[in-house]
Amino acid sequence: MSSFARSITEVNHLEAPNITRLIYRNIKVNTDPGSLTILIGLPAMYLVFFGFGFASLQSSASGGSSYLSFLTPGLMGFQAVMAGTVGGGMLWADRRWGMLAQLLVGPFTRLQYLLGIMLTSVAFGLAGALVMLGIADLLLGALPVSLIGLGFLLAVIAVGSIFFGSLMLLIAAKIKSNTTYNSIQILVLFLVNFASTVFYPYSSALPAAIRVLFAINPLTYIADAVRAGYFGAYTTTVGYEVLVLCAETVAVLFLAVRAYMRSDVSTE
């Protein structure tokens, strides 16, 4: 075996356990009752209360099925946003309390820490989406999604989790004030959530400014693609939206990695 091949093998043996330990640590920190209430409980309450509260509404985008059926894949896509907050929150808290500096003094590298955060965001996004699917199954009794559709929508949610994880990481790397970071995060959550097709379909009857927000909002692409996989209704538009989402994810991930690598290990 060449020296280069031996080096690659050694790096793989060293990095994989470290990244796994970081993912375990990140998941453990974010699975306390308070965090789970926000990450899983809030979307679940949206599903139950909005689903039944607006049960009389019918959406043309859902093929005439109930509003609850329309809402379910939308909230599955919204889990990508909730998962993204985990990454940004972890980085900001670790810098604020000096944990990042301690981790980097130990056997972990900056790249391993970054991969740990990103993979944790993906894990939370997929887990949250499956929880929403399970709740919908209990409420609806039967789901139209196929195995192929499930695989497609989970892949979209994974990409979406990386996008919003990168976005929140980029914000966290630039912000040193807890109040400022929380304010920006809440604003981002509000805008991307309600200016998307999570709760209602895109309509030409909407004001022009809101239509623009719908059109540029990555959560719209995620919700549309997840809904397509859920109902098995794939269109050219959905394919275009997935391509745009992937391109945006690569761009935001690049900016986030660059900002993170240049950021201080402490906010002090």
Features:
268 residues, mainly alpha, 0% strand, globular
Brief write-up:
The protein is built from 10 helices and no strands.
Q: Secondary-structure element order, as H and E?
A: HHHHHHHHHH
Mean pLDDT: 82
Q: How does the major sheet shape up?
A: none
State the distance separating the first and last CA atoms: 47 Å
Relative strand content: under 5%
Count up the helices: 10
Kindly describe this structure.
This protein has 268 residues and is an all-alpha fold. It has one domain. It is built from 10 helices and no strands. α9 crosses α10 (236-262). The radius of gyration is 20 Å and the shape is globular. Mean pLDDT is 82; it is low at 1-14 and 59-64.
Q: What is the secondary structure topology, with strand pairs?
A:
Layout: H1 3-29, H2 33-53, H3 67-96, H4 99-105, H5 110-140, H6 147-174, H7 178-194, H8 208-216, H9 218-231, H10 236-262
